[in-house]
Amino acid sequence: MKIRIKMLIGIVVVIGLLVAVAGTGLFGTSQMSQRITDLDYWSNIDMVMNEGVTQKILLMGTAATAFRERSNNENYKVFNQTYSETEEGLDEWSKMVAQEDGLKVVAETLQSTLNTYKNTMGQYQQLAQQKIELKKSSDKQVVQLLNHLETTMIEQIDPAKKKPRSVQIFRLWLNGERLTWL
Fold it and tell me: Hey, what's the torsion of the CAs at 138, 139, 141, 145, to 10 degrees?
């Protein structure tokens, strides 16, 4: 073999090795790019779930506890605000996971449970208002009872206490009652 052929074979081998290394590098880069894209996709799902849903649910739970402890309109407004923020976060997360069947089911379940929780807190708020009204009503009834007793004392019992006992006995005797209890 001539030197020229040996050199050509050497160049072809080097070019072949270069093509093989470049192909492997491109394939690796392509695979790495896909893995990075997947990692970014799942990291975003995780971040939005954590910040937009989980943290908002925790804040909403805290607001609900505050409302249950002190059932007033201000605390109920705070609960409603945190509920709205939670719902917005869940909507954003639901859109992100719409292509993931398992997570889509989880998002739908969370939305259903969140709606039930909102209804429960609405009922709790109504009961709190009823409690306030019942307290006012019962306080009013106690005042009415005490007023009635006071009127009875002033108009009937006090005047009867001022009459002499002999007058009371005489009235009974006039009415024809037997006075065996004397």
Answer: 130
Distances 4 to 8, 13, 15, 49, 172 between C-alpha atoms, Å: 6, 14, 16, 67, 154
- pTM above threshold 0.90: no
Pick from 157, 161, 165, 167: nearest CA to 175: 167
Q: DSSP assignment, residue 70?
A: S
pLDDT digit string, tens, across residues 99-124? 999 999 999 999 999 999 999 999 99
Which amino acid, one-letter code, is at 108? E
Residues near 114 by beta carbon (within 8 Å), at least 6 away in sequence? 83, 86, 87, 90
Domain boundaries of the chain, sorted by first residue:
3-166
Question: In the structure encoding, which two tokens stand for residue 162, read together?
Answer: 């001022």
CA torsion angle 160 162 167 169 (round to 10): 50
Nearest of 49, 121, 40, 117 to residue 89 by alpha carbon: 49
Residue 118 makes CB contacts below 8 A (sequence gap 6+) with 83
